[in-house]
Amino acid sequence: MATIPIYHDLSFYTDAERNKARYxxxxxxxxxxxxxxxxxxxxxxGRVNIIGEHIDYNYFSVLPMAMEVDVVAAVHGTDDQxxxxxxxxQEFVSEQFELPADGSVISINKNHHxxxxxxxxxxxxxxxxxxxxxxxxxxxxxxxxxxxxxxxxGNVPTGGGLSSxxxxxxxxxxxxxxxxxxxxxxxxxxTRISVVSEHYVGVNTGGMDQCASVYGEREKALLVQFRPKLxxxxxKIPSTKPEEMVFLVTNTLVQANKHExxxxxxxxxxxxxxxxxxxxxxxxxxxxxxxxxxxxAGTLRSFMDTYxxxxxxxxPWDGNDVVIGIERTQEMLKIAETTFSEEEKVGLTTxxxxxxxxxxxxxxxxVFLTAIPVRYDIMRVYQRAKHVFSEFLxxxxxxxxxxxxxxxxxxxTFLMAFGxxxxxxxxxxxxxxxxxxxxxxxxxxISVANGAYGARATGAGWGGSTVHLTTVQKLPKVVSALxxxxxxxxxxxLSQADLDAAIVVSKPATGSCLVDLS
Length: 518
Ligand code: NG1
Ligand code: MG
Description:
four-stranded antiparallel sheet, binds 2-acetamido-2-deoxy-1-O-phosphono-alpha-D-galactopyranose, binds magnesium ion
């Protein structure tokens, strides 16, 4: 089983030089804070998603890559039961707390939102994992975890769609496991446990970000699969000639605060898609595996698989054969079109949804509205299903394009087809998933009009970052258009440093790792 690498220097960065000052500052801050040197560092990167948005929590594959920006935790384990969290960024005020002396797993007060809660999430999943796999380290659960002193340094923009939260949680889990004596951390285990960590602060994430953060490799993008099992498969993106392809990642500088808007945005999508899967299943008399984050309802992937296996009695899809995947997903789109009347396609009230499911509104509330609090007048169930199936189709078409592109092929044709898929993804996010924003639309339109083949929001949306497909040659024009038409217009007083941080060319980077300081 592959384990996360251990480094003794910064050679895992493409640009180690650029990070040296950062690490020096981190180490001196630690020493000043705790009067001792850290013994190791846990690190995990942010990611950019190339294509496949709001489908990971339906278990449809996505295509992200890890980035050079990351979260690093310098650590010193102690024999007391105290955890002290500090950060090189003054905005994150120090926190400390005691681990329960009786060896029990801590709990979180969800109503009190703080950065320390993300550490607590990590502690919960890491502790449960230790109890499950290494119970002797904590004497079967009667001994507490080790105390820890930590200083964090992160350069993933927060609320920016590059998954700072996942990078933070994964780096923290690595730090906690290592402190408690687990040196060899399997990528599979690390992904599996980190995927659910943020659920403890009430954000019902899928598993793309954590998986990309763990499995990232230099020069490689990732195919993140959820079925038949969760895994990140690194692969080389084809190169293009004579114009070398690049991904530009830009931040709209409009923060998407997922935590505060969850009830009407992110979490509502999770619920709407679960409702969609159950309505589709009802139409064919199928009973779905209850695999959504609600745990009382299915997912759209579960519907697709059950429809083929139980209704059409066809063998299960292995997730790899792109042609079969495309065929099945196109069938799903047809089903979504015919399951709802024109009137229902506008959106459904609670009564209408209960009626379609042939249950009472009280039962509807029990199944769909209890585990995850959401607010709505109508649920746009048809639109969400349409977004998810069409978006997965675009992921498969992108993969097909990558696999079929040969070095001797015309790059322009390839880039145009790839860009079109990215643009279609953005259109669907805007029209069917309602997860775009005026700023995101503006940024994408500017870059496409100035030399990008495609542009789209990356991550949850409603603000945050965008990813643009362009080439080394076309890049300067795209960047200067974005500066002139977007940043200067909306943020005229932005410092040069902030502007540089908002516009980055991203190369695929190394995933989670340990840095040994002994
Ligand atoms: P961001 O916005 O980057 O955190 C979120 C989810 C992903 C995925 C995307 C939408 C988290 C940690 N991650 O990404 O799992 O669902 O939205 O594709 O919330
Ligand atoms: Mg996040």
